[in-house]
Specification:
heterodimer; A: alpha+beta; Rossmann fold; OB fold (Dihydrolipoamide Acetyltransferase, E2P); 5-stranded antiparallel sheet; 8 helices; globular; B: mainly alpha; MetI-like fold
Chain lengths: 354, 228
């Protein structure tokens, strides 16, 4: 399964140019609001007709403006989970879920699907309720189930967590992970949250002002992404638990990390996201310091912020990329420059299991 | 009440029901076109639909006579080929009432369709529903309160229609003498006051029942039209 996009879309004063093809798993379209992410998924889903270009899924051409091809959205078999769930208010949760089944061509064995997807999303208790009685998180889970039950060959998710508070997000993220790993449907996931992308994405497509600025695996791309909340991602496994101190030790390419105890068994694969503003830099191995995690590395690049007050320092820690956000003054005082070996002092780590 | 008065009440109910039932499908289709369609000549269609509302009813009735009269091409075709005679028959009264009620019906349904969140319709599209199915399973159910309101308005208009009806199909007892025509006739003859009053009360009762019925129906369907 694969899909490819090569489009130009002009709308008033905005121009979107995107060209990429995706790998299996979850492809995150990442960028600030107004970068064209939602327009791009609307084009893939058939809600918008691009000015020029081609969209193909699974070898089938859905849009080709040169050949005059435009497959309408109801014949694309592309599921779409909207930011606002858009559940049908006049139907029960069950009938919302089954809506797409009326039209799915390969309807065989679909009742088994309902049970499986209800179980996957944990919405069994909601089936006879009305959408207006559901919480925001429940609505989004039902919306995801509804899209899946239409047997899509590709699932689009446009900031599905944006309208939810932190607790509700935490409630849904594990379901999206299970979806990515178990449902076997490739996902295109729009987000402007680094934490979400770090946790979920297999591949990242970075959009900025209507242009694709980077495409690649999440570990390579995310540290480069132009984001206010920049950071680095480490792939790690749980090495052991330090019970007396309620800590967990993680092994990663960059070295060992000690973090507040995780409820995960030894050997579990986790993805750690380290925000740039949580990383300090020292020229010598710091001694007598409260921070537990100090990783050696080498400076790869220094990018100054537009107003010159701050700089993002990109570090290569034995192959893993970390970002540190420093003041311009610190950069000058320590005479930081690419190639210089340094030590990254990590104040805190946000852990994202995967 | 006299047998003649009962006949007028029965006829009016038959005419109004037929007129409403006949204009409902067409009215919903036109309302949908006006609400969601984008086509050349849309404002012309809009104007044509509203014409009976702003023209004197007598003019509408006369135009119907000119169009569907027995000796006009359309009237002759309908009578000879399909066996449908409209002029001076109750079917003609139903046609006149349908035409007069049509703008009210379309207006109510159109407003109601416009109030349906079009984001729900595009969501239905991504789930595989073609535009016709989207209309049948999302747009129509969600605009049902407006459809009911429009149908009641159309029915009420048909119950009270006088000018176009009497011009097109005259005032023949037992055939085209509807409730308003009968009341008019009774007020023109000496000693008809009691009968006119009785029919007036019946007319008020029917209107109130229709309104009550629509309220009850609308309440059962409930206010669940916005995207959640």
């Amino acid at each position: 399964m694969s899909f490819g996009v090569d489009i130009d879309h002009v709308r008033e004063h905005f121009r979107l140019t995107a060209r990429f093809s995706s790998a299996p798993g979850l492809t995150a379209l990442f960028g600030r609001s107004g970068s064209g992410k939602s327009t791009l998924v609307d084009i893939i889903g058939g809600l918008i007709r691009p000015t020029r270009g081609r969209v193909a899924v699974d070898g089938q051409v859905l849009v080709d403006t040169d050949r005059g091809i435009f497959v309408p959205k109801h014949r694309r078999r592309i599921g779409y989970v909207f930011q606002d769930s858009r559940l049908f208010p006049h139907l029960s949760v069950r009938n919302n879920l089954l809506y797409g089944r009326w039209f799915a061509q390969n309807g065989g064995g679909a009742s088994g699907d309902l049970a499986a997807i209800v179980e996957l999303l944990g919405i069994g208790a909601l089936l006879d309720r009305r959408p207006d009685s559901l919480s925001g998180g429940e609505k989004q889970r039902v919306a995801i189930g509804r899209a899946l039950l239409a047997h899509p060959r590709l699932l689009l998710m446009d900031e599905p967590l944006a309208s939810l508070d932190e607790a509700r997000r935490a409630e849904i993220l594990p379901y999206i992970e299970r979806l990515r790993d178990e449902a076997g449907v490739p996902i295109v996931y729009v987000s402007h949250s680094v934490a979400e992308v770090a946790r979920l994405a297999t591949t990242v497509v970075v959009l900025s002002e209507g242009k694709v600025t980077a495409v690649g695996p999440v570990l390579d791309i995310l540290p480069l992404a132009d984001a206010t909340d920049g950071g680095g991602v480490l792939d790690a496994t749980v090495a052991r638990h330090d019970e007396p101190f309620h800590l967990t030790v993680l092994a990663s390419a960059a070295g060992e990390l000690q973090v507040p105890q995780l409820a995960a068994t030894v050997g579990t694969h986790v993805r750690a996201y380290i925000r740039a503003r949580d990383v300090m830099i020292s020229l010598r191995p710091p001694e007598e310091i409260s921070a537990l995690n100090v990783l050696p590395g080498r400076i790869v690049a220094i990018v100054a912020s537009p107003n010159g007050a701050q700089a993002d320092v990109r570090l290569d820690c034995n192959g893993a990329t970390l970002m540190a956000r420093l003041t311009a003054k610190s950069v000058q005082r320590l005479a930081l420059a690419p190639g210089r070996p340094v030590f990254a002092v990590i104040k805190s780590v946000s852990f994202e299991r995967s | 009440m006299t047998e003649e008065e009962w006949a007028a009440v029965r006829l009016s109910l038959l005419v109004a029901t037929t007129a409403t039932a006949a204009s409902l499908p067409l009215g919903i289709a036109v309302a949908w076109l006006l609400a969601r369609g984008r086509f050349w000549g849309k404002s012309l269609v809009d104007t044509l639909v509203h014409l009976p509302l702003i023209m004197p009813p007598v003019v509408t009735g006369y135009l119907l006579l000119l169009t569907f009269g027995r000796r006009t091409p359309i009237g002759a075709f309908l009578a000879d080929e399909l066996g449908i005679v409209l002029s001076f028959r109750w079917t003609g009264a139903a046609l006149a009432c349908a035409v007069m009620g049509f703008p009210l019906l379309v207006r109510a349904v159109r407003l109601s369709i416009e109030a349906v969140d079009s984001r729900l319709e595009s969501a239905a599209g991504t789930l595989g529903a073609n535009p016709l199915w989207v209309f049948a399973t999302v747009t129509l159910p969600l605009s049902l309160p407006g459809v009911i309101a429009g149908a009641i308005l159309c029915f009420a208009k048909a119950m009270g229609e006088f000018g176009a009806t009497i011009t097109f199909v005259s005032n023949i007892p037992g055939e085209t003498q509807t409730l308003p025509s009968m009341i008019y006739t009774l007020t023109q003859v000496p000693g008809g006051d009691a009968g006119a009053l009785r029919l007036t009360l019946i007319s008020i009762a029917i209107s109130m029942l229709a309104l009550l019925g629509s309220e009850l129906l609308a309440r059962r369907i409930g206010p669940r039209r916005v995207a959640t």
